[in-house]
Amino acid sequence: MLRVRRFTRFRVAPAIYSEALPVEVRAWTVNGEPVPFSHATAQTFEPFELGTAWGRPWDTVWFEVRGEVPSGWNPAETELVVDLGFTADQPGFQAEGTVYRENGTIVKALEPLNAWVPLPDAGPFRLFIEAAANPIVQVPYEYEPTHVGDKATAGTEPIYTLRDVSVARRDLDVWELLQDVATLDGLVDVLPPDGSRRADIIHALVRMVDVMDPDDIAGTAAKGRAALADVLSGTAPDSALIVSAVGHAHIDCAWLWPTRETVRKVARTFSNVLDLIERDPEFIFAASSAQQYAWIKDTQPELFERVRAAVKAGRIRPVGGMWVESDTNMPGGEALVRQFVRGTRFFREEFGVTSNVGWLPDSFGYSGALPQIVRSAGISHFLTQKPSWNETNPMPNSSFLWEGIDGSRLFTHFPPAETYNSDLGAADLARSERKFRQKGAAHNVIALFGWGDGGGGPTREMLGAAQRKRDLDGSPKVQLSDPETFFETAAAELAEPPVWVGEMYLELHRGTLISHARSKRGNRHSEALLRQAELWAATAAVRLGSEYPYEALEKAWERVLLLQFHDILPGTSIAWVHQEAEQQYADLTAELTALVEHSLGQLAGDGNEVLQANAGPLARSGVAAMGVAPASEGGAPDAREDADGFVLSDDRLRVEIDRRGTLVSIVDLTADRELVPAETAGGVLQLFRDAPREWDAWDINDEDKRSRKDLVDPDSIRLDGDAVVVRHAVGTSTIDVRISLADGCLHYAFDIDWHESQKLLKLAFPLDVRADRATSEIQFGHLHRPIHQNTSWDTARFETVAHRWIHVGEPSYGVAIANDVVYGHDIRNGQSPDGTPMTTARLSLVRAPRYPDPGADQGQHTFTVSLRPGGIPEAIADGYAQHLPLRDVRGSAVEPLIEVSDPAILVESVKLAEDRSGDLVVRLYEAHGNRSSATLSTNFAWSGVQTTDLLEDAVSTTTIRGTAEGSTVDVCLRPFELVTLRFASPAR
Reduced to 3 states, what is the DSSP secondary structure of residue 852? Predict the structure, then answer.
């Protein structure tokens, strides 16, 4: 095969373009952020020679190309070939180009493995190339700090060289021969080494070399193809795997480039797709993320209309129904709902389509709440691939029913090629057959083909591979298809699919729960502000007739939803992305706070009484849930210093803190029970080495726990009023902790100035509780996870997500730990030094990865953590108290719009309907994990109420018991059931 491969590489491949003619190139450098076509083409362009360097990092250079297509050249063969200085190491992640006609319409894009553009018929032409000098941030398997992820430090010298721009004639016979050889050569690598089929293929390839003239490739290409015809005509057996090949291009909304560059990547990719659609009538392209379509609409209206036409024709399929392919671990429940509401609304309004396929191939784990949310958004099928990256335990099935925490089930499929960037090569297809876990019971799998992230999507070479492998001996059968058809077929052939229950935990990328803590704070805070802004604006609209700020809220949600993309919120992007995210969150805070204060000002009126607004779903300090009233004050705790340290106490807890700043005792006075295990320190800050084997910002490794250092030698410790204040110094970092007690709850308030590198800071609470599982809040409920290490699955689950609280307990006693912005948790059972069973709960506060942002997590951070004895209801209450603190208001009390009789049923959202009808939408969920009933008492006028899906369309359910009338509605919810009620405005 060495002879065949040398011949192919050095003789056949260079002969694809048999003739090439020079063109005239002129250039203009933007020296800044991208500009529109009209602005660029109005500038003065200077002559530019091939071999000249261009493009400082993140800059744009516009090239004007003038040339002529010779008469007599076949238009199907004539192309402009461009080499912007590409490296063939990877299909994207580097320079890219967009080619425009003189009228400003896009022809096609240029990428490393897709560097050609069709040319018009014979005669002169003039084109413009918008060339993006995106630096190469990702070097495979190297995760070293890079300066190029921040425009301020990326450098000023050109980083690319224009190697080629020419009019070339593509020899179709030679190109087809190269596709034949690629198909067969790939099979040589995957077929049994001693099999007859492999031997036949090698014999044919050798014969191909023999019959061709190395000095006349074009003239003998037909002979070469004839030598391969027989082995290409062999058909696959009836039992062969059937691969539904769906065109795709996974485009991260931000990652190793800023969002502004994604806007251009999306336009480039869709322009390539539209070109392929014209060339192949069977080709179908699936693309998710309404945000990306919206970017095209806003920046390239002509291209968007072409996309709209392709969607109407069924050639482009919007899938997923989400605004972006978000993270699913950290966004709150309402935020995940809005991903589907906003995304699906866009697809309906712009294209008149609704996808029934969920599409999240690359998120870093999948919440157990997701099946219910997805089903409630009208989606019945779900695709992902990421769990195939598990380090330890492979997922047991490729096609299965995924059951969420409420019992909702969703037919789910993992592409067994284990990639969303397939080239339909023999290796990917062989892996599909090898890794498909339902062999025998089923024969249908999906393959997503196309280069993502700036690679430009599917290519004509991939379509050539699909055509040859439609029915080819030695290969699965490949058929071009679409997601809906595949899922209908796959679900139909599995009469009783296996069931996976609960979350799909990714045994990798656990550090994403911790990286870039300020962005995570911005997310949590923005979610809370959006709840408040909608609640109080809806209350003002219903009560006072005030104008509801639809536009402002919609735009705010879109910004938050974008920032929840799976490489932004997880903290895995370059510095530029996170700098922008932090600024976006600051802007959102100002804008949403203004909306909240405006609505509360209208509601409270001109009075001067000191009030508290409670946006939470549970009453607090005498203020009703979702109401405004004077707050009652709790009793002041006792705080004193003694010879051994400090004592904080109230009528529920007595807490002793030693001179090291650690807890030596927490006595639950009500239960007469000590919570700190004997000979064990509690509330300890622990520092760990954090040097992942790879994927710095993504990963933490369990072995780094062996490097633990307890911070028990504070710089200072003192009593300040009713709180103990501790300062620790770590390297050049300082950690200030304020420990206080209020209403039977122990509070830790952290103010951290962090300047460490590759260190992980955790807060540890050893507890005298015998538990074999921990309970963690997720969206619209909670789940239980084993905390022992009986199996490899248990051992691999060493860092887990929780939202506002965790709980560990015995059957009749437990401890709740809540937080204001912590997602990563580490909970294990064990024994204290004296052999007593105990449970240790750690909260992961801050880390400092070096790649892709070497400045990640440097600077100021604040966290608050609380601990109290109690059950799940107390944990929920403390979590909401941290998430939605009472807000000061002056004026008159405001009665809540709605009151719920059972605290197990919580109101997650109160807003006006998306269709702007004036109807009030109330979203509820059952939070305790029981079947719960409640009466909803309303304090506003309405003419009818109905249960709806998340899209606010009426559905038939048994949630509402009896006839809702007057001012009350009786409801019954299953454990963790999510319900949306729509109250019709009396004006309708």
Answer: coil
CA 842 to the chain's CA centroid: 25
Q: Are strands 285-287 and 316-318 parallel, antiparallel or unpaired?
A: parallel
**Is 683:662 a contact under the CB 8 Å cutoff?**
yes
3-state helix, strand, coil split of the chain in percent (to 5) is 30, 30, 40
Is 180 noted as a catalytic residue in this protein? no
- The mean per-residue pLDDT over the stretch 653-669 comes to 98
Instruction: Give the SS3 label for residue 577.
Output: helix
CA distances 219 to 12, 212, 756, 768, Å, are: 11, 9, 65, 83
Using CA atoms, how far apart are residues 344 and 329, in angstroms rounded to an integer? Answer: 21
Distance of CA 741 to the CA centre of its chain: 38
pTM value > 0.85: yes
143 confidence band (pLDDT: 50, 70, 90) = confident
Spatial distance between the Cα atoms of 403 and 389, rounded to a whole number of angstroms: 21
HEC letters along 857-868? CCEEEEEEEEEE
What does the pLDDT look like over 369-419, one tens digit per residue?
999 999 999 999 999 999 999 999 999 999 999 999 999 999 999 999 999
896 touches 625 (CB < 8 A): yes
Spot the catalytic one: 200, 280, 362, 736: 362
Give which of 420, 456, 111 is closest to 273, Cα–Cα: 456
Q: Which residues pair with 767 in a beta bridge?
A: 839
From the centroid of its chain, how far is CA 315? 26
Q: Closest by alpha carbon to 790, among 773, 807, 806, 805?
A: 773
Q: 84 with 50: CB under 8 angstroms?
A: no
Pairing of strands 78-83, 477-480: unpaired
| 222 C-beta neighbours (distance < 10 Å), count | 15
Give the contacts of 46 (CB within 8 A, at least 6 positions apart). Answer: 26, 27, 28
DSSP symbol at 506: -
Helix (H) or strand (E) segment spanning residue 108:
strand 106-110
Question: Could you write out the DSSP letters of every residue in 189-250?
Answer: HHS-TT-HHHHHHHHHHHHHHHHS-TT-HHHHHHHHHHHHHHHHHPPPPTTS-EEEEEE---
Alpha helices in 423-459 (DSSP H): 426-435
Query: Cα(870)–Cα(631) distance, rounded to whole angstroms?
Result: 23
- In this predicted structure, what is the pLDDT of residue 958? 86
